[in-house]
Design a protein that fits this description.
Layout (H helix, E strand, L loop, with lengths): L3 H27 L17 E7 L4 H12 L4 E7 L3 H9 L3 E5 L5 H9 L6 E5 L9 H6 L6 E9 L6 H21 L11 E5 H8 L2 H4 L1 E3 L2 E3 L3 H11 L3 E11 L6 H23 L10 H28 L10 H8 L7 H31 L5 H5 L1 H17 L17 H4 L11
Parallel strand pairs: 1-2, 1-4, 2-3, 5-9
Antiparallel strand pairs: 4-6, 5-6, 7-8
Helix pairs in contact: 1-6, 1-11, 1-12, 1-13, 2-3, 6-13, 6-15, 10-15, 12-13
Length: 433
Amino acid sequence: MPPSWPLLLFLLSSLSGVLTAIYLWTNARFSRARPHAPRASPAGAEGVTVVVPVLFQDPERFRACLSSIDRSGASLIVVTDGPDAGSASIAAEHGARLVALPVRSGKKAAIAAGLQEVRTPFVLLLDSDTVLPPGAVGSLRSHFSEGVGGVSANLEVPQEVGLVSSCSEFVERSREVVLRATSSRGSVLLLDGACTMYRTEAIRSFVLSPAFLDLQVLGRSSPIGDDWLLTGHLVEEGWRAVKAYDVPARSPAPSSFRGLVRRNVRWARSAWIRLGKELTGERSGRREERFYRIELFGTYLLPLLTLAMLLTRLPLALRRGPTGLLPPLLDYLLSNGTHAFSSGHLLLLLVGGLPLVAEATGGAAFLYASYRCARQRSLRLLLMAPLASSLLFVTTIYGLLTFWRTPHWEPVAPAPQSSRETGGRRGELSLSR
């Protein structure tokens, strides 16, 4: 390798590292600020309809979901995506109004079918495995101050011993850091599809339009992206999208590590599709909030910055000789035959180490911010950080390389169950992002 190449790789690596550190530090800092949107006066469940799309959900999880809605007193609509006798019977037990799609049409079609039946000013879209705490509907409703178009609950993973639940919890808390940062400056990047309340008339026409129902990716219809499509629509129309951090909603982790990987790949593909729409200008309006746009691009490009750091540092680390693992700038100086260091060389060496220090401190600040967001802070959450971060990185890059592969809205990890209860199939519904 020519002597000039180590310096070039060092400069590229340093640039990626500095940008990554700025992103991590910015989010860690702003996540501690107070949310921008003020809270309205206390409210109840009056004027709210809960819409629950369902597809062959685990009976126990589905009953727990509907029971949590029963306690709120809100109106309830259950939409079965195709024939699903098991879910229909459970919905009847809870007095829900049932909307049954005759054939499998996807989650977005189920949301649209349910929204057509809503006659209240507010609608809560809830996944069929998400459980609300007492008073959650009224608490979400109370966050609708002037200018707020959607309010999302703060998702929590039920505390269970195991890698899957712990990794899922860390992923949610790291996402919370970013959402809290954007909350302090305006709208959040994403209203989570698992549990979000909207002003009905702010989204009704959009949900019933081809722009929502027929998302095109390389000329093919894609079933994913319902939540970011709704979030982007609200922001483009001048509404604020906020997160209610005081309203937790329990959303279970996948039943296996393979399920966790598959879920994160789906989320990654949806994120890359969203970024592609932004970069190609396929938007229906202007985004007025500068910080929102910066965070949007920064969040989606962070994995590419990480990949750039790895690709630029790997050749230096693999070089033979005693200088192969030394800081890149020192390696460059030695490669040029400079073995006697002057004060200028020492200064260059110190400056060359600053990006590494920035990355380390930025990562530590972001990790601590994620830890602070957890309701149950434990050493286990910190220990899961390397594994969860690696999982996010790998699935995000894989999602970029396979973004056009969009799966159908279908159960994950099916398990045997009597056909009398579930129509012959059982699984988990988790295809919100």
